[in-house]
Amino acid sequence: MPESYAEAQGWHYRRMHEAGQERAVRSLREDLERQEEEWQRQRERQAMLNSMSAEERKLFLALERLQRYRLGLFGASLFCCAFGLIFFYVAGNVGAAVTWLLVHSPSLSSSPSSSFRSLRVLLGCSSFFKMESGKAETQMECRLGGLNSKRLSAKDISEYISHRDSFGLGWLLLQNIRLCEDSFPFTILDLSDFSLSNGKLDFLLSTTTAPETLKLGPRVCTEDFFPAVLTFLQRLKGSEEEEEEEEASGGDGRRLKSLIAAKCELREVSALFSSLPPSLERLDLKGNNFRLAAMEAFSARWLPVLMSVDLSDNPLGPLGVRALAEGLYTPLQSLRLARVGAKKEGVKGLAEALKEKRVSSLQTLDLAENQMGPEGFEDLVDALCTAGAVPEMRNLNLKRNNLIKFDEVTGRGVAGYAPLSKLLTTDRLTALEELDLSENALFEEELGVPGAPKRVCASSIAQNGRFPKLRVLNLCGNSISSRETASLLTALQQQDAPRLEELGLSSGGGRPRAFVTEGRKMEKRRGERKSWSEEDEPGIHAFADALNSGCLSQLTQLTMVKRDDLSPESAIPLFRALSDRTAPQLRTLNVEVQEASSEESCQETMKAIIAAVRQGGLRHVENFTLDLEEFCAVSAHISLLFFALGSRVGPGSRLRKLDLRWDCMTDSDGQSLVGLAQILGAGGMPCLEDLSVVFQKEGAKGAEAFGRVLSTGRVPSLRKMYLDWPMSPVMSSFCEGLRVGNCPPELKMELHIHGNDGEREEGDVLVRLTETIRTGHMKCLQILRSFGVLFTSESAAGLGQAMADENAGMVNLEEVAFATCRSLSTEETAESFWRGLGRGSAGLRALRKVLAYYYADTAPAPLEHHFLSPRPLAAVVARGKVPSLSEIKVQVGVGDLEGVAALSACLWWFSPPSLTSLDVSFGPPAKTFEEETVYFRPDPLQQQQQQEEEEEEEAPAVEVQTFSRALPDFSRSLTRLEHLRLSNIQRPEAEFRSLCHGIQMARLASLRQLTLDHVCIMHEEAAGWLSAALNADTVPRLTVLKILKAALTDRKLKRLTDGWIRRPPPPLKELDLSLNRLTDEGALALGAFLALKRLPALLRVAIGENQCRMPRRWEDALKKLAGRLPEIVFCWSDD
């Protein structure tokens, strides 16, 4: 093992030399492949020449000679476009083809067949360009029919101008469109994938007419490109008067109507709103970084005919929403402000605008996830219920807003019920069509019991004709009781009740697809459920009555999951009602049936479900999710269900997504998969695109047939498949079926395999799975996750080697994950997998990450990431076998210079750069905060003395210095790095200084989050080093900074903030200083720094688990500070 920095460098260079030899061999192999490709291109070229006419052959050969003298790409494009415009008028079709091939000539040498196909298309398209000569001028028209026959659209043109090889062609087509605007509807100019220089963008926009829709992307919204966009918008704005004159004289008056700049990282661009043309009707700016200043610019009312605004996922804050509300006026019809941090203050400002009737034309209002609370809810409801405020309101979304306040001691609701009752009983929203009140715990307090809150029942929505046009009602996640559900469904049967199309009544919201199914290891408890009666569970029975009454005949979507009253007994009348075709328009059905009290009830429930499908009650369903995991079904019944789904009278001809989960009895014979295989093989589901199959106990019979159907391509429509299966003979049989043929390349499979943490033998199954992958019969695999499967070192290495085999063809594999309850086993499995991957003859071109987890023996428990050694990883990366790897989590031991050299070699060979997340731990894994409570709580002087004694006992380690000194050399490989986490640096200050210097010199331009965990900042001067390393020049995109368990004191924090006063700080949005030694004085000093507004984008400050005692004076100071900085949230915990 190297004992010095020089020896580590020598080891590093030797590894580079070995990797260089391997690359030479690979380069020779690539040369042979390129030679073979060149021969293939020559054969294709000769075949094309033989298929051409004499005129086309002469043209093609002439163009091949012309491309030898072409200029630079941009100069050639300009020359050829100018030449083409002239030649087009003279020679017609041939001139257009010549111009295109000159501009597109780079692709002639790379792909002749593709080029000639494009030549054919353009020669055909040129037939709709005709010339008519007159005495005064030459006129050119565009034949729209010919254009559509060649399928050349505005989207195709946008794709042409976004790439280097086709920029000239796209620009030429745009110029032709300018001459024939009447016939070609230029609907959209899409620059979301624009990849050229800012000069080309400026040239393009300066010569382009106004499209109806302009779509921008992150690249064109950067500092270098966005001025060209602003100039283009200003030109459109200045030409409004001229366009009005053209429109008056008979012109088309084309103007920009929509601007889309979603998720473009736009910040306080005040010039944007003043540059927008007044003809704009739709503005989509969701997912950016707009705040108060931008909203103040927007409120100047630059857009008199604006009808739709989407500012969701912008950190507007309460003040930003209030400023926006001041600029609202009547033409506006749609306002979407989801997740903007409005809170009660912002909602109050918006409510004032509604009360003043300044937006009486508003039809859509989206305020989801804004934490408005009961106070904001009350202000908003008062505004909505004001006569004439929003008479045309159609869509109201108040999802997840904490509308009800609960007492922390008693747990009872104490506020929010009055505005809820007012909203549900108002007659001012008669035009409302969609109402989303999900995940607000509105009905958690049951009515009719002692201490019940004063509120109206949910049935008020359907009574007295209050909402006659209501089509969509989402009450998921509100814990609505079975009795109140029955009242609502009974009210829907009234004559003046609305006819719903979508209804959500899930108690806890939708069920996400989790990696670990809660309670998987636990056996189902039988006989604990009391016998069912209609009086105990009236909700589902009332739903069946509502279906039979015909009041839900227009229902298209139904979601009922995680409902305690949806037992097998109550599900029987529900599915019997569906079997009578009482919901003929149903397209989406999500149902989860709870635990059964007996096997007989399970059988009766399955019979009712099968009858509902067979009799055509679900014949129009396209998305079907049925969760039967809570009770054991008979595999024969599951098989019959598959047969019913694939029959002619069932929904098989329309079914696009099928998600079925069940748990068969222990002695299952496996008939369920037999039914699925036979139906798929017979073409019973011709439109199926997404299939999910989850079970915990199933016989092996049928798994082989299912695999055979997939491998022989009998389901050509299938694109996505999710399997969550046990590591049992079922998996072995499935692999045998896959080995019959090859899965189609369009199919992407996510495979979850789960074992019993070594309780049963799984070696034979692993061997079968590995062999199936090695022989190339599982090329469709995209994600592989194992849970509780104990791999040996040999089996894990064999799996990695099989995946990297040249015959495996794993071109789609993106993620591999291992999880066990034994930490050491997980580490050995992951490292053995990497070693096997290095021994493979090929690589995994699409692999992004390999994850290792471990969990406690008492499941369920949260999964924790595991650190790995960098040695096996470096050997794989240096050979170029994982060029798309995006996430690395490694551990370097104390004094482990060989590990540092391996990590350095790993980072050095990332070409092209793909790494987005890097997590490095120096030394053993850090203890949890609970284990180190004593470490952070004693007297600071005593703690410092203890640290000095420990440093004297330890020999100075240089692994951090070695890594830090090499960090600037990796800047080429880290150009896409977004997340960097460094932990366990507790030794001499020289290490921390070198680390800060390395970060400063590396200039990580893409870094968005930096976490320093257990990185001890020993002195005030060290805080100054960190401040110098983190500034707007070195980390220009850093938005999240977490300094955790770093022994940060008041004086060190002041030194850090003083550095940000002298130098421009990074654009932080979140600052987490939890688990340190900050006192009240430090918190006050931090507040004083924030008051200087040196961090204008800051939204959240976490200072929990420090030594702040929250005295009265600190609370008063916090309130005063909050008055000046209302957009910043101070959190006292890490949550």
TrEMBL record:
Residues 18-49 form a coiled coil. Residues 947-956 have a biased composition (Acidic residues). One of its GO terms (biological process) is nucleocytoplasmic transport. GO terms for molecular function: GTPase activator activity; small GTPase binding. The keyword Transmembrane helix applies. It comes from the Eukaryota. One of its GO terms (cellular component) is cytosol. Residues 518-533 have a biased composition (Basic and acidic residues). The keyword Coiled coil applies. The chain crosses the membrane at residues 73-103. InterPro entries: Leu-rich_rpt, LRR_dom_sf, RanGap. SMART domains: LRR_RI. Pfam families: LRR_6. Keywords: Coiled coil, GTPase activation, Leucine-rich repeat, Membrane, Repeat, Transmembrane, Transmembrane helix. Residues 502-535, 938-958 are annotated as: Disordered. This is Uncharacterized protein. The lineage of its organism: Eukaryota, Sar, Alveolata, Colpodellida, Chromeraceae.
